[in-house]
Amino acid sequence: MRKITMRTISETPTAMEFDARKYALVDLHLHLDGSLSIDDVIHMAAIEGVPLPADRDEIKQQLVCPEHCTSLNDYLKCFDLPESIMQSHETLAYSTKSLVKRLDEQGLIYAEIRFAPQQHIHKGLTQDEVIVACIEGLRAGMAESTSGFKAQLILSCMRGEGNDHLNMETVDLAKKHLGRGVCALDLAGAEALFPTSKYRELFAYAKAQGLPFTIHAGEADGVESMKLAIEYGTSRIGHGIRSYNDEATKALLKQKNICLGICPTSNLQTRALEGVTQLSQYPLQAFLNDGVDVCINTDSISVSNTTVARELRKLYEAGIMTESQARLMTLTAIRHAFLPEAEKTKLLSKAEQLMNLR
Fold first, then answer.
1. Host H or E run for residue 62
2. 331-358 residue pLDDT tens
3. Annotated catalytic residue: which of 112, 169, 191, 219?
4. Would you call 274 a catalytic residue per the annotation?
5. Per residue in 156-184, pLDDT tens?
6. Is the pTM of this model over 0.85?
7. How far apart are CA 321 and CA 334, in angstroms?
8. Which long-range contacts (CB under 8 A, 24 or more apart) does 61-68 make?
């Protein structure tokens, strides 16, 4: 396997158009309920008996982050409609299969899809039944892939009040289904309102169960949130973008070999960085130049109205990412995927062949 390091990358973007088809595409930070197509929503709403506007554009307005979004809390409102129509075995399996098929069609070779089982129990399903339905959809979608596309599920615990028992149950179910479609645990939700410090016992329990996990941190809260996630034993951090100018935290990330799953469009939409209002200001190079492992992700395909290919293309065209860095971050994503080492090796080989690195 050819080794590419941060230090070997020195070329600058040219006027040539960035062609994402030349890259192996991977998404490690992708929310199921934030990635429904309009056709998905219409089909699932009919099953769930949820009324929708007749106009597709009006439906889209409920799914896509508005231009006037001012915070993560505003961004999270776009999940209300999807969650209301993902409350049965049929719709959960359908939505997961549909997303897997669309990711395959977009040219991805691997993805980790996350969702919070406790958000889908409002019509009588148990968390276990929710997970079983999503695993069914996951397997059905992969079975139809002709490219060998692979995806796994990450189960998200939720920041909030009065749901500690549900979070603990999610941990137990992640353990039950680990390696059977589920690959890890997560913590998601309103980070600034419900700080990471509240979840020390949760992740101590998860660690005792031998579960790998990632934590949303450094998105709506500062680097102290990230330091706690690292202390708890996280393998990756979702976002972590607020550490771009904190040398001590970046050094800690390198020391602990923790990858940041950053989501540029989403970070701009949620105003994650004060004063950063356009992509050309996005501090990607602050991580790459210091040798911090990062990879590019969508966060939510529909809410952020994006794809992995579009994220890479936008970064390139903004002049803040080179082609070699795009390739590097794909390989970085695979190295930090929640996969057995043998599967990582095969996936790295596939990616290198697709990107003509061998």
1. helix 56-63
2. 999 999 999 999 999 999 999 999 987 5
3. 219
4. no
5. 999 999 999 999 999 999 999 999 999 99
6. yes
7. 19
8. 63/36, 63/38, 63/302, 63/303, 64/302, 64/303, 64/304, 64/305, 65/266, 65/269, 65/303, 65/304, 65/305
